[in-house]
């Protein structure tokens, strides 16, 4: 996606004033502005920078100097005629890109329009395939209706496909045909208007199956996500709106990634901007996901190990005194035969594990996950 750059930007009074405030040539200011605008197309699509710190804005613009100085220069380079710099206050203490809707906003509107056109085209293709599967003609827009076949067993009908023609007053009147043997066509012969109840049920089921996942999300799941967002400082009404526009997984991913991003002055606003903008995973997210997965596997193994220990302890307790004494003697013999037998607490732990291993082996229970 490309941003629209005005040809007067290099010589604009705001550009020259910003260059004077920053102590750099106007061409350098143009370069920093272009970098900032291109970054905003991906990460601040509505032009709202209130969720980002000056350091983040300066980094997006590739400014290497003091971030506060850079942001102040873009804000204070206001032209006398309109009173706004390249950045302006949104009235709530945040920053927005001046006139963003006239430039970046138009690009996103065009992109959304193109996406809708493609979606409508795919829907039309699915409808054509469905009609073909049901053996019905496809009279969708852009395709001619099926031609009436010239067959001796099929009488000709001198009327349009709906069997009705307008009279002189503009009201539709039934078409009168010549000849008693010619039947009158039904006024409702369009395939979409003549579907059977079974066809309607199939179409309704297909639409439900193709609906977005968030539309089929359980109400209690949405309530959980809203509560989670509210616990992070997001207003309940905004949290509910986010759940309508975004899937649960998208929201939970952005919440997890927020911890890996630079700390924002307004964490809730930064989170909302990240969810709306569908920000990409920050560096380190993959490694964090791998660590979380490894931790989950470790916890699962520990739980399995504890469950097996409890099972074996219960088995040993249910044995006769003679069998328990025999297992105890065998376990003592094993740890005493070690080159450096453990002592104290370590000895008790190793003895318990050895006792369980002997019992598991004797009763054919898989015990490979137990500690050695």
Explain what you see:
With 372 residues, the protein is mostly helical. Among the domains are: 94 residues, no CATH class; 64 residues; 61 residues, no CATH class. The protein is built from 13 helices and four strands. It has a two-stranded antiparallel ribbon. The protein starts with 12 loop residues before the first helix and ends in a 10-residue tail after the last helix. The relative contact order is 0.06. About 15% of the residues have low confidence.
What is the fold's blueprint, element by element?
Elements: H1 13-22, H2 26-43, H3 54-60, H4 67-76, E1 87-89, E2 95-97, H5 104-134, E3 164-166, E4 172-174, H6 197-209, H7 219-231, H8 236-245, H9 248-258, H10 267-277, H11 285-318, H12 321-336, H13 344-362
Antiparallel strand pairs: 1-2, 3-4
Helix pairs in contact: 1-2, 1-4, 3-4, 7-8, 7-9, 9-10, 11-13, 12-13
Number of helices: 13
Count of distinct strands = 4
| Cα-to-Cα separation, first versus last residue | 60 Å
How helical, in percent, are the residues? 40-55%
Topology order in helix (H) and strand (E) letters: HHHHEEHEEHHHHHHHH
DSSP strand content: under 5%
**What's the overall geometry?**
elongated
Oligomer: single chain
Low-confidence stretches: 154-195, 206-217
Order of the strands making up the biggest sheet: 1-2
Q: What value does the average pLDDT take? A: 75
Taking the sheet with the most strands, its summary is: 2 strands, antiparallel
Q: Over the alpha carbons, how many angstroms does the gyration radius reach? A: 36 Å
- Classify the secondary structure makeup into a structural class: mainly alpha
